[in-house]
Write a structure and sequence with these properties.
With about 575 residues, the protein is an alpha+beta fold. Among the domains are: about 60-285, 2-Layer Sandwich (Beta-Lactamase), CATH 3.30.450.20; about 415-574, Histidine kinase-like ATPase, C-terminal domain (Heat Shock Protein 90), CATH 3.30.565.10. It has helices at about 5, 20-95, 100, 105-115, 150-160, 200-205, 285, 290-375, 385-415, 425-440, 460-480, 510-515, 535-545; strands at about 120-125, 135, 160-165, 175-185, 190-195, 215-220, 250-255, 260-270, 275-280, 420, 445-450, 455-460, 485-490, 495-505, 545-555, 555-565. The chain has a five-stranded antiparallel sheet, sandwiched between helices. A hairpin with a 5-residue loop joins β8 and β9 (about 275-280). The structure holds adenosine-5'-diphosphate (ADP) and magnesium ion. Magnesium ion binds near residues 529 and 533.
């Protein structure tokens, strides 16, 4: 089974049975290419995807982890800042009585100590049970102000302590109020209230050292901005993004801001104050290295695909070329075997027929001879001469038949060959001499281009002569008077020498070329050719281990080339 036929059997390469070899090759090529592309590009693609994904994950972690740590740390320090101040206020509320604090000189002294020890305090005030500020130290004129209607006062009365949102209050600058409630012995409640400068908190947030395109600030639990921002508005504006879900551990969200930029929001709620620390970073900035890597990966992938494509096409082409070549070689060899098989069986058949015909021919010959004698020596009669010439014609025809059967039998019997080392040029010259007369007579020029120093070949002189006589006489028969026949010999390769007989005669049709070596195939007029010449020649050459090749163009000429082995080979059947 041929290689290609075997390919038909692969299920994935399933082909319909009736298509030709080049067609199969084309289909096969297409399928192999497809298959190779699938099994190379798919894993490559998957790998690129996985790589990209993994890298992105890693990069994310590398970006997110420090960010979360930073957010946590900053919240802690801000919280600590607030807690310290709240405990300072609490301490004062516990350490002093209402009356101590109602004395403004006392309050002033305490306030100065607080400012010195803790920092960040702007003012300090004492509010009595009616909500009126009874004593105050600080830069403003707030003594006597009535806070009874303010919601924070209600809250501090309920909870005991209070930290406010940032607000502008009476003073038109952002501040935070802390308040602590205490009770006098007679059950009246009073409140000590301190104002904290948000500048301190701004400084704490600034210590995060965020880059120019990132923002870190506080918002309150209603989403109102509490400290200065770079990109998201002023203090007390409403933050444009939705309030993130409650979480006291640092967390991140990915969203888009109002400018349509992708942003990463890291945030954490304060457990003991109404604030959320928010850090907003722009994704574009964060993942810039990722985007370049992404394009790099893409180009590498593209280059990989191109190389694979190129390689796949080249390899497949090569494969297909080899396949087609070997297929053609196989077919040629097969045809050759078939041909010689056919010739050999026809030869054997012809020899059998010749053998069978020989006996009747002998009888016809003998009887015709007898008849001739009888007529010749018998009494005269009217048509005696006519009868004599008719029997002569019979005897002549029988003679011709016998010479043909003899030649056929000789071919089939394979007379013992006598091998000797022969100079091929010498054999050619000798043979040509037989035909010299005809060539001269018909004005045909016979040219010799005989290779020099050709090695001697082991062969049978008689058989070789027969070969060349057949070929040369065909050439002479093909050319017009005045034509040319060239005989060339050369050292063909390590194993063979070659002899070509070229004529510029009538040439052969495709059909003739195909049937050239068949016995009894002749295009010559009746009586001029037997059609056995090349048939016998073919047999002889095969037996000598050589080859014969015919090239011809109708109307232009023919070249018959004979290749003969330099060394004796096993005789081949033929
Ligand atoms: P024959 O010479 O008896 O016809 P061959 O076997 O020698 O038989 O040749 C068979 C046929 O091959 C010829 O009849 C002829 O048609 C063709 N042929 C052979 N040699 C040549 C040639 N040199 N030029 C043209 N035709 C040729
Ligand atoms: Mg002939």
């Amino acid at each position: 089974m041929s290689l290609l036929n075997r390919f038909r059997k692969f299920s994935f390469l399933h082909f319909p049975e009736e298509i030709s070899s080049p067609e199969i090759c084309r289909l096969l090529r297409r399928r192999i290419i497809l298959l190779m592309l699938v099994i190379t590009i798919v894993p490559l693609f998957a790998m690129a995807l996985i790589n990209a994904h993994q890298y992105q994950e890693r990069l994310r972690e590398e970006i997110l982890n420090p960010l979360l740590v930073l957010v946590n740390k900053t919240r802690h320090s801000t919280e600590l800042f607030l807690a310290e101040r709240l405990s300072a206020v609490s301490f004062i509320a516990s350490a002093y009585t209402f009356d101590d604090l109602a004395d403004e000189a006392n309050l002033n002294r305490i306030f100065r100590v607080m400012k010195r020890e803790f920092g960040g305090f702007v003012d300090l005030g004492l509010i009595d049970s009616n909500g009126v500020q009874v004593s105050y130290v600080g830069p403003y004129e707030l003594k006597g102000r009535d806070y009874s209607e303010q919601p924070w006062l209600h809250e501090v009365k309920i909870r005991g302590t209070y930290i406010s949102d940032v607000f502008m209050g009476f003073r038109r600058f952002p501040h935070i109020v802390m308040a602590v409630q205490r009770q006098t012995d007679d059950g009246k409640s009073w409140v000590i209230r301190a104002t904290i400068d948000t500048q301190k908190i701004d400084d704490l947030l600034a210590s995060m050292r965020l880059d120019a395109k990132s923002d870190g600030f506080l918002i309150n639990t209603n989403g109102v901005i509490q400290t200065a921002t770079k990109n998201y508005g002023n203090v007390l504006d409403v933050f444009e993004l939705k309030l993130p879900p409650y979480s006291t551990a640092a967390n991140v969200l990915e969203t888009k801001d109002s400018h349509g930029r992708e942003v990463l929001v890291a945030y954490t709620y304060f457990p003991h104050a109404p604030y959320v620390l928010v850090v907003v970073k722009q994704m574009g900035e964060l993942f810039r290295s990722w985007y370049t890597l992404q394009t790099d990966i893409f180009y590498v992938f593209l280059a990989g695909v191109c190389i694979i494509l190129l390689a796949v096409f080249k390899v497949t082409d090569l494969l297909m070329k080899r396949l087609l070549e070997s297929e053609q070689k196989r077919e040629a060899a097969f045809r050759e075997i078939e041909h010689s098989q056919k010739l050999s069986s026809i030869g054997r058949l012809a020899a059998g027929v010749a053998h069978e015909i020989n006996n009747p021919m002998a009888i016809i010959n003998e009887k015709a001879g007898l008849m001739k004698d009888l007529i010749e020596y018998g009494a005269d009669f009217a048509e005696k001469e006519k009868f004599l010439s008719l029997t002569d014609a019979v005897i002549k025809s029988v003679e011709r038949c016998r010479s043909i059967t003899h030649r056929l039998l000789g071919f089939a019997r394979r007379m013992e060959r006598q091998l000797e080392v022969l100079d091929i040029n010498e054999v050619i010259k000798e043979t040509a001499e037989f035909l010299e007369k005809e060539a001269l007579y018909r004005n045909i020029s016979v040219r010799f281009q005989l290779g020099e120093n050709l090695p001697g070949i082991p062969s049978d002189r008689g058989e070789l002569q027969q070969v060349f006589i057949n070929i040369m006489s065909n050439a002479l028969a093909a050319v017009e008077n005045g034509g040319t026949v060239s005989i060339t010999s050369w050292d063909n390769d390590a194993d063979t020498i070659a002899v070509a007989v070229e004529d510029n005669g009538c040439g052969m049709s495709e059909e003739t070329l195909k049937r050239l070596f068949e016995p009894f195939f002749s295009t010559k007029k009746k009586g001029y050719g037997t059609g056995l010449g090349l048939f016998l020649t073919y047999g002889i050459i095969k037996r000598l281990g050589g080859q014969i090749e015919a090239r011809s163009r109708e109307g232009q000429g023919t070249t018959m080339t004979v290749y003969l082995p330099k060394k004796q080979t096993q005789p081949k059947a033929g």
